[in-house]
């Protein structure tokens, strides 16, 4: 052991090694940073020798130098791999929470790029030459599209729920139906957010049935808010009873108590008209006379991560003034992305321009066309694959419309050597990772969530696997 330790090169010797400056030059990393890493690598090798993990007695100084340079280069190369990587979603789940939910429209991306590289009017009013408010950037769009009196945007919908409860109901009571005390992905629980906000939760009804009279009976002098929560990721079937927003609005009016609905996804596009689900639009909800609504920016809206709050001006103003609004505020990229997204809705171009809307309503025949292009390209090469096309179901995902299954066509893939799990792994390791479904020993590709240029990448990945 002592023998190997004696051969360990000094830092100045390593720095004089030809590979040191080669790595610095080739990978554009400063020699100062590389020198720090050299210290780390030498320490690591020294420890390995001491712990007898490195016992090869033939290791002389030159070999040790090469070993350290190999490690140094490996570490440097890792900087060229991103932790946050682009992937291709071939699962057919449109709003895949693990894969980043909505992908943005070209218009939204252009606006983000435009704003990212310059100074902007984030908080500057061009007509007065004085300070402006970032709240003004998308408020008019939201008012025009939804018909609400006022609007604001925070970091995400979880933050929106928190802000509404904190600004309107701290030290007061909020009445919620037991059937709507949800927990959604990423450990968001209505009851816990409520506790954090300082509001007191008053549960009414039972898990499966809540009546309007349950709300009426629970109202006291301390009631600050009636709250309704979209069930989002589950549905109650069988003997159930919910209180409609309309009925709650009527009770709220009579008792002069505001009513708030956490809509979860909150779509601006009417999917019902396309025979997809029963999701009410934000516009329809506003028409009921409800006071406050909140929803996500990156679910059915198809924009960047954000929490949108729309409703009566007096409540929105109160929330804008709350200190918490400053904590939860969004940055210029989110506002740029939202502006780009909302413009498509104002123009009535969401079917054409918003990928989330477009993907959800894409007819199965159009998915079949992509599947056929794929199969056709595969046919021309002799591989161990067996492909077949079958009817299937796509999902909306993102904890929205849990019951909705969208008719689609899928390509089922088998291989004469690899198992479906091995195949899925190979696809995950492709230079642009491809994420697929695995079911019944088959890999399933749903091209609903794969766009034209991505289809070429999937074809390439399969051709390279033979
Ligand atoms: C998704 C969802 C949230 C959380 O929204 P984020 O934008 O993910 O923070 C809150 N409430 C409901 C009902 C939801 O569906």
Automatic annotation (TrEMBL):
Any Gene Ontology CC annotation: cytoplasm
One BP annotation, GO: selenocysteine incorporation
EC number: 2.9.1.1
Main location: cytoplasm
Modification type N6-(pyridoxal phosphate)lysine: residues: 299
Gene3D superfamilies: 3.90.1150.180, Type I PLP-dependent aspartate aminotransferase-like (Major domain) (3.40.640.10)
Catalysed conversion reaction: L-seryl-tRNA(Sec) + selenophosphate + H(+) = L-selenocysteinyl-tRNA(Sec) + phosphate
Family designation: Belongs to the SelA family.
Known function: Converts seryl-tRNA(Sec) to selenocysteinyl-tRNA(Sec) required for selenoprotein biosynthesis.
Protein name: L-seryl-tRNA(Sec) selenium transferase
Source organism: Cerasibacillus terrae
Lineage: Bacteria, Bacillati, Bacillota, Bacilli, Bacillales
Gene: selA
């Amino acid at each position: 052991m002592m023998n190997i330790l004696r051969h360990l090169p000094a830092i100045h010797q390593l720095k004089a090694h030809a590979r040191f400056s080669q790595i610095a030059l080739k990978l554009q990393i400063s020699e100062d940073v590389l020198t720090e890493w050299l210290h780390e690598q030498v320490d690591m090798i020294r420890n390995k020798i001491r712990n007898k993990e490195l016992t090869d007695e033939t290791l002389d100084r030159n070999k040790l130098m090469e070993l350290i340079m190999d490690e140094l280069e490996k570490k440097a190369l890792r900087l060229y791999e991103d932790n946050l990587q682009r992937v291709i979603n071939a699962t057919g789940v449109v709003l895949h929470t693990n894969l980043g939910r909505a992908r943005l429209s070209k218009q939204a991306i252009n606006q983000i790029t435009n704003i990212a590289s310059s100074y902007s009017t984030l908080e500057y009013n061009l007509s007065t030459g004085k300070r402006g408010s970032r709240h003004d950037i998308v408020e008019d769009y939201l008012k025009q599209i939804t018909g609400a009196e006022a609007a604001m945007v925070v970091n995400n919908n979880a933050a929106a729920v928190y802000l509404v409860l904190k600004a309107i109901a701290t030290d007061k009571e909020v009445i919620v139906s037991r059937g709507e005390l949800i927990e959604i992905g990423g450990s968001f629980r209505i009851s816990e957010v409520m506790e954090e906000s300082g509001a007191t939760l008053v549960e009414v009804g039972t898990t499966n049935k809540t009546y309007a009279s349950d709300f009426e009976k629970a109202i006291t002098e301390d009631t600050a808010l009636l709250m309704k929560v979209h069930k989002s990721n589950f549905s109650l079937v069988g003997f159930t009873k919910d209180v409609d927003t309309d009925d709650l609005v009527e009770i709220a009016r009579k008792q002069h108590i505001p009513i708030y609905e956490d809509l979860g996804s909150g779509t601006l596009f009417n999917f019902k008209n396309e025979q997809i689900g029963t999701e009410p639009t934000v516009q329809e909800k506003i028409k009921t006379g409800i006071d406050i609504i909140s929803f996500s920016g990156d679910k059915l809206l198809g924009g960047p991560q954000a929490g949108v709050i729309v409703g009566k001006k007096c409540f929105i103003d109160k929330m804008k003034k709350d200190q918490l609004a400053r904590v939860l505020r969004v940055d210029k990229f989110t506002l740029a992305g939202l502006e780009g997204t909302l413009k498509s809705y104002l123009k009535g171009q969401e079917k054409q321009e918003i990928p989330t809307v477009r993907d959800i309503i894409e007819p199965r025949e159009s998915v079949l066309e992509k599947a056929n292009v794929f199969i056709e390209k595969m046919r021309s090469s002799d591989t161990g694959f067996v492909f077949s096309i079958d009817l299937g179901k796509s999902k909306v995902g993102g904890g929205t419309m849990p019951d909705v299954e969208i008719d689609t066509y899928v390509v089922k893939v088998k291989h004469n050597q690899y198992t479906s799990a091995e195949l899925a792994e190979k696809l995950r390791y492709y230079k642009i990772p491809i994420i697929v479904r695995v079911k019944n020993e088959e890999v399933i590709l749903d091209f609903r969530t794969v766009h034209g240029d991505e289809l070429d990448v999937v074809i390439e990945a399969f051709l390279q696997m033979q």
